Automatic annotation (TrEMBL):
It holds the Pfam family FIST. It comes from the Archaea. Residues 228-357 form the FIST C-domain domain. Residues 27-227 form the FIST domain. This is FIST domain-containing protein.
Amino acid sequence: MKALTAYSEKTDVSEAIEEIKNKLGTAGLKAVVFFSSSSYPAEETAKLVKNEFPGATVIGCTTAGEIISGKMLKNSIVAMGLSSEMISDISIEVVEDPANTKKIEKAFESFGKYFGKPMSDLEFDKYVGIIIADGLSNSEEKVMDRIGDLTNVTFIGGSAGDDVKFEKTWVFADGKAYTNAAVLAVLKPANGFDIIKTQSFTALDKTMTATKVNEETREVIEFNGKPAAEEYAAQLGVTVEKLPELFMSHPIGVITDDDIFVRSPQQIVDGSVVRFYCNIIEGMELNILKAGDIVSSTKDAVEDKKNELKNISGLINFHCILRTLELEATGKTAEYGAVFEDIPAIGFSTYGEEYIGHINQTSTMLVFR
């Protein structure tokens, strides 16, 4: 059994969701995951999707672009239907004000009651978590850190977008829309699952230590004991004024077991401070990275997983908006979409990706076997 996927580009939200319902059908669906452009009214969208799939658990969010098998889209809604043959169990919790870690703990207590055992005892090879967070809440690091303390179950996901307006993002759960919130789902896939994490960078032999930071604002004040922007620019051999032009092609990353976890710079503040899209901890050593080809690296990662698993029955792609912007700038969006042409897949362009922690310029993908 494979996941069912559908999309609509109709501008009227009622017509769009009606089209999706007609394509997916409703029989036997245990869960529906959907991603919606912020061009649709969030609260009405959430309510209508649940009304059309009343017997399913429904989660989703607003986006900065949508992905469906074979295509990258804008101003659309994409959806995946999962039957009981694909997931044998699912439970969801909404965490409002997610920076308050006590609320995450309460959500995990509810998961424990539902599954009949604490989340700390839940089998990490049988269960997987999805997290969809408000992309403007600046809370993802706290949420992921606390999740890591409470369970060995892997949580993977992304931060909601609003089509690069950076005004308000929404997450959806069973007919309701929330802002300043995170939706957590714990699934038991019937046939197993796997994860793909791919980023298109190599590490240069240029390292910097964050010697002074403001974690709350995601700002680095000093690298290597020097003003952050000045040292970053010097490492790349450019002026501070030219540095922002290299942010997308030369972000920085933490190297762990030969894997790269990307931290993307956002802007220079007050001429010397570098603000990032995710947190950097004081004392952290980071490598400057060099961009490669997104399409080829993604294709390699997906093909490797296909060869390993022999069968992929569904895939959810949490894909960084910075990767989307680069694909658009280089005219490669069609090539990227084609990577997933023969896989039942949906996804969206995120304001950050979740896997172990909060990261950038990466695609994190949940793969159903």
